[in-house]
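Thread: quick sanity check before group meeting

JM: Hey all, I'm pulling together slides for Thursday and realized we never actually wrote out the predicted structure for the chain we discussed last week. Dropping the sequence here so it's in one place. If anyone has concerns about the input, flag it before I start.
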Amino acid sequence: MWDWITVLLYSVIGWSGYFCVYKQKRIKRKIKIYYVAMSFIWIPFAVFRYVGLYKNISIGGSDAPTYISYFQVCLTSTNHLYALHTEALFQIINKIVRLFTDDYHWLFILFYGFIFFAYVSFIQEFGIKHQNYIPIFMLIIPYIKSFSTIRTGLAIAAILIGIVSLSKRKILLCFFMMLSSIFIQRASLIYATFPVFYYLVIKEKITQKNAILFSIIGAFSGVIIQRVLIAGDFSFMSGGAYSKYILQSFHLKYWIDYLKIIAEQIVVLIMVFVNNARIKKFGENLEMEEKRHIKILQILCYYDCFLLPICATLNIWRGVDYFFLPRLLMLGLLITIYGKKVTYSSKRIYSIIVLIFIIMWYILRLSTFYDKSDVMPYLFSF
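JM (edit): ok, ran it. Output follows.
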């Protein structure tokens, strides 16, 4: 049920995130005071949402009740849906927390605290000090989606921390986080292999010119993998949602709906490819470390593009969210680059246009999943 009050509430939470990031990136303090303030807004907002029936409709996340019920019985039940079909690490985390409490809010504090930590760690590492951060408002979208897809939210967080570790050259931690993401959400496998792609690009085994070729290969690979998974006898395919997802990709309606989901992803990726020369020129005036961070963001976008046809063929609809944050930072960088060409008198108009675009994008993006994810209306329950 579409609820404008909830839409407004989500936007307020999103803008609080933008404000805190904007302020934090412009000061130098060991204690990240604005991130701390942001955590006191974002984490309770997710943890203490009401999950259940409200006026005969389910709210708080479509899969959240099942996650909660599994947590309650995870130490005793072996025939629960999630005991049979969820990944090992996710089950272990549930069982460890369940040893100490039966209140699922403590589990949610751990989950959403981890997700939030991953967000701010990635922004702190890869955000350029004087770039535009308005797109960070849109970070509320994958955060809201995690109300339902909690495992995916955790897996994305693990991969983001893994990429931060890669940037800091902490290879063992990077490997651990990437591996962890797979044992939280198996669909993360193709995104967890990013360090391999990164290494190949750095060693100039893959260039921007042949990235398109790799995307075409990716499309054919997706079709081959699709046929193999359907024809083969794989335990993770039997009885679960994955077989249903893959079979859906044979229908025309699926492709129409999927294009609606990935439309913004395609637009941003095209913008990154087209503006490669402008991005490179912009980096000439930056410090070496900032240049390296921009390069990593670009490589993330190239890999995101490479995986698009694979995700589409295998109906990995969650794929659009994995590198959502890197794309937001790249979009903010492009807004900054184009803003430098705008005259001083027109900068206010330029900012208003950007703001309108972001708000429209927010409403359109929210409209693609709010009903299936049961995230409206929002009720706070402490």
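AS: nice. The longest strand covers residues 52-54. Residues 77 and 83 are 8 Å apart (CA to CA).
JM: adding both to the slides.
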